[in-house]
Amino acid sequence: MVKTKNEYINREISWLQFNARVLQESKDHRVPLIDRLRFLGIFSNNLDEFFKVRYATVKRIVDAGKTGKSVLGGERANDLLEEITKIVIDQQTRSLEIFQQIDRELREENIFIIRETEVNESQAEFIRDYFFKKVNQELMTIILNDLTEFPLLKDTAAYLAVKVVMKNGSSKGKHNRYALIEIPKGIDRFVVLPKEGDKNYVIILDDLIRFCLDSVFTMFEFESISAHMIKITRDAELDIDNDLSKSFIEKISSSVEHRKISDPVRFVYDKSIDKDTLQFLKEKMDIMGTDSVIPGGRYHNRRDYMGFPSLGRHDLMYDKIEPLPVKGLSMKGSLLDMIAHKDYMIYAPYHTFSYVTKFLREAAMDPQVRSIKITIYRLASDSQIANALVNAVKNGKQVTVQIELQARFDEQNNIEYANFLQDEGVKLIFGVPGLKVHSKICLVEREEDGGIKRYGFISTGNFNESTAKIYTDYTLFTAHQGILKDMNKVFGFFETNYKINKYKHLIVSPHYTKSSFMKMIDKEIAFAKAGKEAYIKIKMNSLTSYKMVDKLYEASRAGVKIQMIVRGICCLIPGVEGMSENIEAISVVDKFLEHPRLFIFGNDGDPKIYISSADWMTRNLDFRVEVGCPIYDPDIRQELLDTFDISWRDNSKARVFSAKQDNAYRKRTKGETELRSQVEMYNYYKRKLES
């Protein structure tokens, strides 16, 4: 049965509201100015991915002639596409207004992002020299008029649509020439010009090219040239063929390659473009009324603002934090020895991620270590993790890597790593047919006292040194043999996936995650009905499973107190009388991307606490291999209760979920001190070190 809109928030609409919270950060004057510009870049990058994946999925439903109501929370797919386009146009308009405000404030700080019309003589000389030395040879310029077939535009690449008004052309413009110039990706989007006194000047590559257009079109006798930005976004779903003669790597490689020619799902253009130029492009590109056509600003690919140069103005950026050590876990001694006696938890980026790489390096060189098994979802471009695994092979260890080739937008990177690791002698496993492997686990087997002892770690996030600096995630190091025996069964499932294992400690998708959490919610419901204290505390990225939403509604009606911290999509509507009045939900969007999955159940005074790689989304519960791990160590249990409480008490960057979907900031009560959870979290761990 499909519920009504009043019981669920549609997941696509909820995602757009999450991206609106990112946009709020770019407007927030408490955020340093250059970081506000970078949040605009994150907003734009998020939107690109949304159209590639989610919008494309809804469009496929429409193209198949279906309504999609059963999977879209009661929304008709056609209506949803219209609603999405309306919201996106509104958000794009707001983002342009915010950019203009940031630009004004940058000028007050003597940082000038100038257009081609603002260039002075000395800058003109620098720009032309830069253009001929670095840009001209990289330009791909296509004259469109005489082409019988329109060129294939690259997904989310930015193009200048150029109109060349010829001398002696007719009044109707029949002799206008139209061209496309692809903005080169191998050149910095922001060109820093020579400083003049205390004034910094930056010109965007697009405008630098505009300034030099006369040099590009020297073969024409023209009266004027104008250039306006366009871009398209293509469907990024992978269509994997069933050719039995191909290896899995070959199939994924072929699917990634096919993305280049997949159907467009969005066309964005500079709204100041000449009408005849726009009409020419739409006719040539065969853009229909059903496509999402978005009028935008002068510049596209604003995701590039994530890399806006610092210009030495560190006062206009967030202070970098120095990652802390974990109390009692020394980088100088043997991590395996320390973990043998006690579990340890790191919470990146507050703690240094170096513990993970040191653990693997130590295991790679330890003469008693026999094997290392690890799952890989996303790796850094220059991965110390991969290097440590290769080092282990060279030291005679048996190394098994389960690498997920279908990790969204990291497919090519993972294919390259798979080939590299395989060439170095690492045993590779390519997952389970029909399931993505999203678990974050590592298992080391070491020979001790005539037998095998296991060590390992389990995380809520990827084993990636780069994202560990900006994503918050828990990683548990443990020598608990029961947990690690279960972990070994997970690796066994990767190789013999027809066999469904039973686990004493871990909660594993797709077989047990949903049912296990359902049972724990049922226990809280029973406690509440018996008049006992009953509560659930959840921290995760997204909540989209309608079955889990319904179960939480049931718990709320029974009197279970539920606190939820959901960074992204939340299909549940809290605070509705008779349905969810016992549920409160917030989202924290700040400097770091909140990424942990933490689940706390009251359990009649003896809380059950789990960390997990799984959100409560249908894909995580039913179509992925995910691992949740119980926390047994009393110190770590208290730490997780404390960190949840710190996030929950945020009254600076917390937005409150409600039926209004207005992203309202949580209000502070009179006399209440401001608490920004990410700052307080760092201070909490500093105090632990000092105590």
Automatic annotation (TrEMBL):
Residues 123-308 form the Polyphosphate kinase middle domain. Residues 8-113 form the Polyphosphate kinase N-terminal domain. Keywords: ATP-binding, Kinase, Magnesium, Metal-binding, Nucleotide-binding, Phosphoprotein, Transferase. The active site is at H438. ATP binds at N46, Y471, R567, H595. Residues 335-499, 506-678 form the Polyphosphate kinase C-terminal domain. InterPro entries: PP_kinase, PP_kinase_C_1, PP_kinase_middle, PP_kinase_middle_dom_sf, PPK_C_dom2, PPK_N_dom, PPK_N_dom_sf. It holds the Pfam family PP_kinase_C. Gene3D superfamilies: Endonuclease Chain A, Polyphosphate kinase middle domain, Polyphosphate kinase N-terminal domain. An intermediate of this reaction is the autophosphorylated ppk in which a phosphate is covalently linked to a histidine residue through a N-P bond. The gene is ppk. Mg(2+) binds at R378, R408. This is Polyphosphate kinase. The keyword Repressor does not apply. The keyword Phosphoprotein applies. One of its GO terms (biological process) is polyphosphate biosynthetic process. Catalyzes the reversible transfer of the terminal phosphate of ATP to form a long-chain polyphosphate (polyP). GO terms for molecular function: ATP binding; metal ion binding; polyphosphate kinase activity. CDD domains: PLDc_EcPPK1_C1_like (cd09164), PLDc_EcPPK1_C2_like (cd09167). Belongs to the polyphosphate kinase 1 (PPK1) family. Its cofactor is Mg(2+). Its EC number is 2.7.4.1. One of its GO terms (cellular component) is polyphosphate kinase complex. It comes from the Bacteria.
